[in-house]
Structure formats: structure tokens, C-alpha cells
Amino acid sequence: MRRWQVTRDTGCVTLSRPGRARFDVGAAAEFPALRPVVLAHEIRKDLWRMLQDLRGFSPVVEIRVAAPGLAVRAGGMLAGQGRLAPGIEERIAGLLADPQKRARWIAHARLR
Hints:
The protein has helices at about 35-50, 90-95, 100-110; strands spanning about 5-10, 10-15, 25-30, 55-65, 70-80. A hairpin with a 2-residue loop joins strand 1 (about 5-10) and strand 2 (about 10-15). Helix 1 runs antiparallel to helix 3. The longest helix has 16 residues, at about 35-50. It is α+β, with helices and mostly antiparallel strands. The chain is built from three helices and five strands. A five-stranded antiparallel β-sheet has the order 1-2-4-5-3, with helices on one face. The relative contact order is 0.25.
């Protein structure tokens, strides 16, 4: 069984669990030109670590080419959730803005 599905479309890469590429919650950020699949996996790991206790959460990271770099949307699907816990989108936005995490993600995903 494949754990992660990478869907490629013109100018867009989406990383999700198979069949779970839906955004019930999310936030956006911009990045320089990088390797999109590597960046998506790096963001997904920290997103999962941060929200793994959120029942029914399945991470999704979408990366689009947007001159001069990349537009990232990170968040995911909430299975079986009636209501969204307050502050989740703000936490995701904070993760995407964290300078230390961004530096690590960029270092891993640099173009070669």
C-alpha cells in the first residue's frame, strides 16, 4: 500500500494520502523556486507532527508554480469532524511562517 500520493498537474503538485486530497482547513505561503515534491514532503512531516492529535486529520500539501517561485497551500482533510477546533488555521499559518522550519525545508528542497 502506498502511503502518500503525489498528483502532478500542469504547474501543480499535490501530496496527500490516496483519495484524501481535500482541504477542509489550510493556510498559504510563498517560497522561492525549489523542488516541489521534496518541499511538499518536508512541510507534510512538520504539519503532521503538529496536528497528529487532531482526530481524523489527513495532511495535504499543494504546491503551484507562481513566478518568481512557488505558492504553497498546506492543511488537510478532517474526517468525521462536525466542527473545526478554533485556531487550527492560525497554527498552520504559523508553521508555514516559522523561520527555522522554512530554512530547513528550503535547505532540503533546493534546486540542484
